[in-house]
Amino acid sequence: MISNTAQPAPGPGIPAADAAPPERPPSSLRRWTELPPGARVSLATLAGIAAAAAFAPWLAPHTPFDPATLDLADALLPPAWMDGGRSTYLLGTDEQGRDLLSVLMYGSRISLVVAAASVLVSMLIGVLVGMVAGYFGGWLDGLLMRVVDVQLTLPSILLALFLDGVARAALPKAVYEELALVTLTLAIGLSQWPRFARLARSRTLVQRGAEYVAAARIVGVTPLRIMASHILPNASAPILVLLTVDFGIAVLNEASLSFLGVGAPPTSPSLGTLVRTGTDILFSGQWWPFAMPALVLVLLVLSVNTLGDALRDVLNPRLLRRV
C-alpha cells in the first residue's frame, strides 16, 4: 500500500531536493567579458595609443626629432584627406615640417611615461603614509593627517609649479634641462599622494581590528610585515581604482604644465607641448597642429576614466549588478 502522506517540508538547515543551487557571483574574468560597449571601446582606444607610443620608433612614418629628415618646404601641409590625396602626410605637418602622426606617437610616449611614473610615486608615498597613520594611530596619525589636509588645500597644478620652480632655481641650467622629465615626474607625483594616503588610512583602520591581524600580533609578526602581507592585499582593490583615476589626472597635469612651458623640453615635446605650439597658429587657419594633439589628449583621458569605472565594477565583489 502506497502512502500518500505529504513529505515534511525541509527545515532551515536541510535544502530541498529539487531546490536550485544558489547563483554564484560572476568571476572577475566573466565580468571583464561582460563589460559595456563603452568600456570595451575605451580599452581598445587606450591599448592603441599605448601600442603606438611604445613602438613609435618602428611604427612612425618619419623621425620627427632628426633635423636631417626635416624640410621646411613641407611646413603646415594639410592632412591627406584635405589635400585631395596629394599629400603623403596622413594628419598633416606642423610649422617645422614634421609629420604630425609621427610627432603624436612620440609625444604620447612622453606623456604616458611621465604620467605612469608620477602616479607610481604618489601611490608609494601615499599608501605608506596612510597605512602607517592608520595602523599606529595616536599622535602620529594626527600629525600625518594634518600634513595631508594642508596639502589637499593646495591645487596640484600650483604645487607642481612651485616644486618645478624650486628645482629650476636650485639646479644649474644644464642639469635642469637634462633632468627636466625627472623633475616633472617628481613634481606631479609629490602633488597627488594625499588622496592615496587618505584611502589607505581608511582601509587600514577597517582591517586593523580584524581577527587575523590580532592573531598575527599575538604570534609576534612585525607591524611592517602585517601591513605588507595582511592589510595591503585586502586594501588593493580601491587603491587600484584610485590609481586608474589618478593616472588620467596625471596626464592632464603633465599636459597643463607642458602647456605653460614648465614641462617637457621642446626637444622632447609631449601632448601638452604640441597643443601649446598649435595654439600659436590656430587663428591663422592651420587648425590641425592644435586639433590633432588635443584630440589624442581627450581620447586618452576619457578612455582612462571610463576604464576606471569598469575596474571598480570588476574588483568590487559585492557589486552584483550586470555590467
UniProtKB/TrEMBL annotation:
Membrane topology per record: Multi-pass membrane protein
GO biological process: transmembrane transport
Region of interest (Disordered), residue spans: 1-32
Protein name as it appears in the record: Dipeptide transport system permease protein DppC
Keyword Transmembrane tagged: yes
Residues spanning the membrane: 41-60, 110-136, 231-252, 287-308
Entry's Gene Ontology cellular component terms: plasma membrane
Localization (cell): Cell membrane
UniProt family annotation: Belongs to the binding-protein-dependent transport system permease family.
Record's keyword terms, sorted: Cell membrane, Membrane, Transmembrane, Transmembrane helix, Transport
Source species: Piscinibacter sakaiensis (Ideonella sakaiensis)
Gene3D superfamilies, A to Z: MetI-like
ABC transmembrane type-1 domain sequence ranges: 108-308
Origin: domain of life: Bacteria
